[in-house]
Design goal:
This protein is α/β, with parallel strands linked by helices. It is built from 13 helices and nine strands. It has a nine-stranded mixed β-sheet with strand order 1-9-8-7-6-4-5-3-2, sandwiched between helices. Helix 3 links the parallel strand 4 and strand 5.
Length: 367
Amino acid sequence: MSSIYALSPSVRLELTKTRLIVPSPLYYRSKCEMNRRGFAVKGIVASGVPVMSSTLTAQPAQGVERLPYKPDGYNYWTWRGHKIHYVVQGEGPPVVLIHGFGASAFHWRYNIPELAKKHKVYALDLLGFGWSDKALIEYDAMVWRDQVVDFLKEIVKEPAVLVGNSLGGFTALVAATGLPEFVNGVALLNSAGKFGNGSSETKRSEETPLEKFIVKPLKEVFQRVVLGFLFWQAKQPARIESVLKNVYINTSNVDDYLVQSITRPAEDPNAGEVYYRLMTRFMLNQSKYTLDSVLGELSCPLLLLWGDLDPWVGPAKANRIKEFYPKTTLVNLQAGHCPHDEIPEPVNKALLDWLSTLTTEASLQTV
């Protein structure tokens, strides 16, 4: 996916209108190129009134304990007939970590060991990503919501805090509204999502026979050829390393471990088809899921850990969250789109500090 302009004009128009982000290590290069060509691929965020505000600076993760990389993964759970990969460590109040588009549970490599000192930490691979099955289904934000909800009920089995980066952030939000009694709080790191615009809804005219039987099939063939080539190009290790170094402000954590955790899942026989379905169907069908509608149903505390140097989901969107949702704590970070991997130490500290306030509040409520 080296350029959005390789797609047909109608698809480019739809992508521009949806303004969806697909920020992940696997596809970062394409997004950088989109921005350089002037294509605005922005992320969706959440909002609220600040409880606290601070700024943390980037430092290399030297000496930080790291989750061991296992080529065959850690634990597996069967969900709707599909194999789902997850990691679990530690004891205490549960925390569930949800990765972004194209990444996996291993993207939380520097966070799991530290958080597990005080919490029971879970990190799962969303269906279609990481070590989870590359299911040939119609992907939709609600598929991942249902996966996380069932994970909470069947694996975690008690109320937890959901933490999500990028696509995982929006997934955490919709899961929290789908099962509020099982979610004590939500933390977002440069979350995906967008605020709605009620006046922008357009009506689609009925397809003509020419469009249905000639134009549409030809467009799909063209998209398959182009996206097939772009997927092959995007999964090359050298390309992934280059992409990551363009996206991480502090590149000291771009290593072979991270690159391998991205390239290995991309070798799955179904990975190319999943990529095609996500790019042509999931991305173009997101306007009905808006942050304002989801946040309007949210009731738990919300933490924003925001990389202010993110080229796609900047601080302006985090600030808009503060204006919308009153139970928000904001921590500004001097990092890019994935602060949890780029600057894990300040992220871990800020997250643990906030989690301790939730534990204190819960204790006071039970007294």
